[in-house]
Amino acid sequence: MIEARKLAKHYGEKTAVSEVSFTVKPGQVTGFLGPNGAGKSTTMRMIVGLDRPSSGDVTVNGKHYAEHKDPLHQVGALLDAKAVHTSRTAYDHLRAMAATHSIPLKRVHEVIEMTGLGAVAKKKAGGFSLGMGQRLGIANALLGDPQTLILDEPVNGLDPEGVLWVRNLVKYLAGEGKTIFLSSHLMSEMAQTADHLIVIGRGRIIADAPIAELISGNSIQKVRVRTSQTADLTRLLASEGVTIGANEPETLEVTGLDSRRIAQIALDNRVLVYELAPLNASLEEAYFDLTKDEVEYHSHVESGEPTLITEGK
Ligand SMILES: Nc1ncnc2c1ncn2[C@@H]1O[C@H](COP(=O)(O)OP(=O)(O)OP(=O)(O)O)[C@@H](O)[C@H]1O
Predict the structure, then answer these.
(1) Among 40, 51, 152, 156, which residue has the most ligand 1 atoms within 8 Å of its CB, making it the best to mutate?
(2) Who's near 15: CB < 8 A, 6+ residues apart?
(3) Least crowded by CB within 10 Å, which of 12, 35, 81, 195?
(4) What is the mean pLDDT of residues 86-112?
(5) Residue 310 — very low, low, confident or very high, per pLDDT cuts 50/70/90?
(6) Band of residue 171 on the pLDDT scale cut at 50, 70, 90
(7) How far is residue 310 from each of residues 2, 15, 36, 299, measured CA to CA in Å?
(8) Where are the domains of the chain?
């Protein structure tokens, strides 16, 4: 369990995190989302004591990270996959970590096996690809079989098999009752992995809810209707005050009425409808809706050339 209370971090004039309060519960995967520069990494770093809060407080399993006598058994973190001795082999890195935390060598072999590092374990970490570096970072986080796992962008650089492996791993660990807190910019991946989401924008929490609730509450539900009588149906639905889009022949996308009501109107007026499909809103839509005013760095592509502009600084 991670509990943040009015947690804040300022760098001079810059507020990276502004008095955030949230709880990350055991037994589920909690995703941490937000635009670039929103404060995700800073928050995660404060949880494990790598950054000192300017004010407020955060505890893991009831204590500040530094107060735990067995920190690696309490919290495993992947915050920067490049934070390894480049001249050490993966095996030596994990072995040194285990030796300094009274973790048996057997566990080193276990995490190497679990993370698929077997073939490269005796190679120097400095020569690792991004994906192999991520796997080593995850192996490191798992070393103490921690109750709480914090992963900043764990799937960054992983191949599709690796992405699937991380998804299954964190779901399995959550099922075992562990607390899992992970960030990712990959919306489709987050939608498939997380049970609960915390969304941060410009250092403030803008949503903290189960993923299904967040999607249904922050996106527009549409129904796709296929009919050869698009003109007739458009006229009939127009009187109901709906918004109708039409991007394909014989197809309408209706916003503002549910499929049952559309079916009833079509039946009452002898309009033949051969498909009626509620369109599932995506996490991406909900996310863009939630964060549209919170994005610090916008990409502009009017001229074909992306430009970075900074607001609010
Ligand atoms: N050491 C630092 N000194 C000054 N400003 C910092 C420092 N670390 C972070 N910041 C600023 O704090 C804000 C939050 O940064 P942070 O890295 O936590 O965001 P993030 O949500 O993790 O972003 P990203 O998705 O790009 O990784 C940013 O505006 C960043 O520039």
Answers:
(1) 40
(2) 8, 9, 203
(3) 12
(4) 91
(5) very low
(6) very high
(7) 32, 15, 11, 10
(8) 2-216, 220-279
CATH of domain 2-216: 3.40.50.300
Q: What is the mean pLDDT of residues 192-206?
A: 94
How is residue 216 written in tokens?
């249904």
201 CB near ligand 1 (under 6 Å):
no
How many Å lie between the centroid of ligand 1 and the Cα of residue 276? 46
Please give the CATH architecture assigned to the domain spanning 220-279: 2-Layer Sandwich (3.30)
Q: Whose CA is nearest to atom 8 of ligand 1?
A: 42
Q: Residue 303's pLDDT band (boundaries 50, 70, 90)?
A: very low
For residues 139 and 146, give the distance between their C-alpha atoms in angstroms, rounded to a whole number: 12
196 lines ligand 1 (CB under 6 A): no
Give 181 Cα–ligand 1 centroid separation in angstroms.
18
| 39 CA: nearest ligand 1 atom | 18
Q: Is 14 close to ligand 1, i.e. is its CB under 6 Å away?
A: yes
Q: Greater confidence, 290 or 172? A: 172
CA of 291 to the centre of ligand 1 (A): 17
Mutate to test the pocket of ligand 1, among 42, 51, 52, 185 (most ligand atoms within 8 A of CB): 42
